[in-house]
Amino acid sequence: AASDVYKRQFPYLSIGSTRAYACRATTYEGLADFESAQADWEKCVELSPDDYKTGCEAGLLAARIQRGSVELDQAMEEVKALPLNRRVPWSSEYVARFYVIAANLNKGRSEELMDLAIQTLRDSLRGRADHVRLVSDPEFSRLRERPEYQEFLGRMGFKQQEAGDLTGSSTQAVGSSLP
């Protein structure tokens, strides 16, 4: 397929395209345009290099559960089957994001899903992550309320004062956390 040739010949452009589609997809999700978000996540999956595919597939599943085009239990099985790649923290963050979105949609399983989000981050990041995203991304706000998440950030060497400083900082600083 043409996308395979593109990924082999232009690996850095492929990563850039992947992140651009992911960024636009999350913007559509913020606007509650889940159909457009799903289309962008599908393009993200198609163009993504293998190391980034897990994050794109988790993003696609998040858009699909928000759109109502897949049941939560089916999406959960698919997400749990995704391989986590410690070399690409971005992908693991999107798996954790899936769990947070699922928790917001299913209050009855909220605790279980939030625990899965934290466990995903603990198991895969091991000190490598986009700290700005972890402390300022609105979708992680419910995680930030949990003591075990704060403990996780502390173990990564991220101080509470820094977290507060970044959360209240300019749009430019927050914008740098985008995928």
Overview of the structural elements:
With 179 residues, this protein is mostly helical. Helices cover 75% and strands 0% of the residues. The protein is built from 12 helices and no strands. It has helices at 2-9, 11-30, 34-47, 50-67, 72-80, 89-105, 110-125, 131-136, 141-144, 147-155, 160-167, 171-175. The chain is globular, with a radius of gyration of 16 Å.
The residue fraction in helices comes out at: over 70%
Residue share in β-strands: under 5%
Low-confidence stretches: 160-179
SSE string, helices as H and strands as E: HHHHHHHHHHHH
Total beta-strand segments:
0
> Structural class of the helix and strand makeup?
mainly alpha
Oligomerization state: single chain
The rounded distance between the terminal residues' Cα atoms is 25 Å
Question: Average pLDDT across residues?
Answer: 79
Largest sheet: none
Which radius of gyration do the C-alpha atoms yield? 16 Å
Count of alpha and pi helical runs: 12
Please tell me what the overall shape is. Answer: globular
